[in-house]
Design goal:
Elements: H1 3-12, E1 15-21, E2 25-31, E3 43-46, H2 53-68, E4 77-84, E5 88-89, E6 94-95, H3 108-113, E7 121-125, H4 126-137, E8 146-151, E9 155-161, E10 164-166, H5 196-200, H6 202-211, H7 219-227, H8 231-255, E11 259-263, H9 272-281, H10 288-291, E12 294-297
Parallel strand pairs: 1-4, 4-7, 8-11, 11-12
Antiparallel strand pairs: 1-2, 2-3, 5-6, 8-9, 9-10
Helix pairs in contact: 6-8, 7-8, 8-9
């Protein structure tokens, strides 16, 4: 980081720590009051089902230590937040990520707080984080009835209704990945059958393709095979898109959404994924409201880390600043961040009945 950049952030004094915990990695970064990643502060450690409880904790603490070492001289860390795969216990800061068996009711919030004496630390489910991020600086700006989706190692989601976050009593509301989809019977790790995560996540799409005779091993390879026209890869992407489309249509029928923002690494497997999503939703010929929500490519990769700057209640006042003291009424700093990509990495793909598709 240049001296000029350091001085800029030292003067602003509005820096927060972002921690993103998922099924394959934990990432940390420093973020300013605009939601921008501070250059040179992003670090990553591996997680995954093969790690022990202690090894997972070490990955988190190491990544945080690396990021804190880049804190500009004279700057104050005003808060930290964790966006994590669920399920979670929001009140107690506990996590039980479905794809990380070693952690069940693990005190992740306390683990992070122990490295940050006196700094407010808040934990939220990753799907809610990406939804808040998209509402603040991404594809969902200007909409107050929104569902965010993370299509990656797993599938998560979050809800904003009438401009307010909806997290439920435990923090797990909006977990769209475990809505069952008619016509599919793929077994899910949650114990259900036909959950959209079991059908359309990256690893499960790869698994299905391999069972059909495809010889690749990763989502990246599946993407390459799709580009080359491999028939199994084409069917795998269509299958994933249809499952996601059915889930979105069901969610819209339930809560009447204006927009769905879709992010996460596997959402980039092929542009046609979104075509299949749209086509499936469009089958609701008599329910115009279920066909009308816009589907946009949301913030992904390093942006499931959106901010929550706390006022006295959980609403979108939380997002007006990444560091609470910017607003005089703020009493506590709550920040939740998954990943930060430059704004140009976000593609908008709005479609609705009567609205033409566009890509920026």
């Amino acid at each position: 980081m240049s001296i000029g950049t350091f001085r800029r952030y030292a003067v602003l004094m509005t820096i927060a720590l972002a921690v993103d915990f998922g099924g394959t990695k934990v990432e940390t970064a420093l973020v300013d009051h605009t939601g921008s990643l501070i250059p040179g502060t992003r670090f990553r450690q591996t997680t995954g089902p093969q790690k022990t409880e202690t090894e997972l904790a070490q990955s988190v603490t190491t990544s945080i230590e690396q990021t804190l070492a880049t804190l500009p001289a004279g700057a104050e860390l005003l808060g930290a937040g964790i966006g994590t795969a669920g399920p979670i216990n929001e009140a107690d800061g506990l996590v039980s990520p479905l794809n990380v068996q070693a952690w069940r009711a693990y005190p992740l919030r306390d683990l992070v707080a122990a490295q940050l004496p006196g700094v407010p630390v808040t934990l939220r489910m990753d799907g809610l984080c990406i939804t808040l991020a998209d509402h603040w600086v991404g594809a969902a700006r200007g909409y107050n009835n929104v569902m965010g989706m993370v299509v990656s190692t797993g599938i998560g989601g979050g809800l904003i209704l009438h401009g307010n976050t909806v997290s439920g009593p435990t923090g797990n509301a909006g977990h769209i990945g475990h809505v069952e989809v008619a016509g599919f019977d793929d077994p899910c790790a949650c114990g259900g059958s036909g959950c959209v995560e079991a059908i359309a996540s990256g690893p499960n799409s790869v698994k299905w393709a391999r069972n059909q005779g495809w010889d690749g091993n990763t989502g990246e390879e599946l993407s390459a095979s799709h580009r080359s026209g491999d028939p199994v890869a084409v069917r795998a992407v269509e299958r994933a898109g249809r499952a996601i489309g059915h889930a979105i249509a069901s969610a819209t029928a339930l809560v009447d959404l204006e927009l769905v923002a879709i992010g996460g690494g596997f959402s980039h497997v092929a542009p046609e994924l979104f075509d299949h999503i749209r086509a499936t939703i469009a089958e609701r010929t008599e329910f115009t409201f279920a066909r009308s929500p816009r589907r946009r490519r949301g913030l992904s990769g390093h942006w499931r880390a959106a901010s929550l700057a706390n006022s006295s209640s959980m609403n979108f006042g939380l997002l007006k600043a990444i560091a609470g003291p910017i607003q005089a009424a703020v009493t506590t700093m709550i920040m939740t961040i998954e990943t930060v990509h430059p704004p140009e990495m976000s593609c908008r793909i709005p479609t609705s009945s009567g609205t033409a598709a566009a890509t920026a």
